[in-house]
């Protein structure tokens, strides 16, 4: 009722303006536009650049759209109504905290001890998706696993026992064998969280969310999900050559990609962004400094917080 009165008052004021300015009794949208623009021209704002005048005109037009009486809602194009709703949701989301998930795959490997030290020094939560057989390859890797398991800033999850031996299509063509491979990793690594990421696949299956990547692996994910696992993929990937320490994407590019995913709401879940990295990226000091620099850039935002995948997604 209030909105209707407000609209009627607005219409009355606008019509008066039309009649006073031109004596025209037409209320077609074309006439309204031209009259409102003329009335602005008579304003001292005539000295303002044309773009400012158009802004003023736009805001008047938006005013008409923003307070529609109930029976005029149907006259708004569905496309415009959807855009308005999307805009208002985005405006609300922008005001809320943002959540960063640093995830490291394929450990324990050379690079794991450095990751453990850096995230500890920076005081940020991290998620590591581990491969069962890697922990048995050497004493150092076994020690790396223990460091991860004992670090309160690190949560360790399942990335299978064999990593499909890098033959993904074959691995997932036998979902029962693939599922059993995950069960073996869960037991031998002594993992307490039922969280998994499928090797070579960006598949999400948690709660009632199910997102496949067009390749096989969906049945394995379903078997894990039925067994109580949350299966997570990633939004942004950062690649560094572990042997040279050279990045395919610089620290700045990776930071900007993450920020853009948050700002434009293009991650799987709004205001939550999952970054994929690999443990073997951080073998050399050069690459380790890049990881520290990326964390520093993200920490500059007071509304960004670092979370474990077990808390994904943070909702309001
Ligand atoms: Zn992997």
From TrEMBL:
One of its GO terms (molecular function) is hydrolase activity, acting on carbon-nitrogen (but not peptide) bonds. The keyword Membrane does not apply. GO terms for biological process: carbohydrate metabolic process. It comes from the Bacteria. The keyword Signal applies. Gene3D superfamilies: Glycoside hydrolase/deacetylase (3.20.20.370). Keywords: Signal. Residues 1-26 form the signal peptide. Pfam families: Polysacc_deac_1. Residues 98-307 form the NodB homology domain. This is NodB homology domain-containing protein. It comes from Sphingobacterium corticibacter.
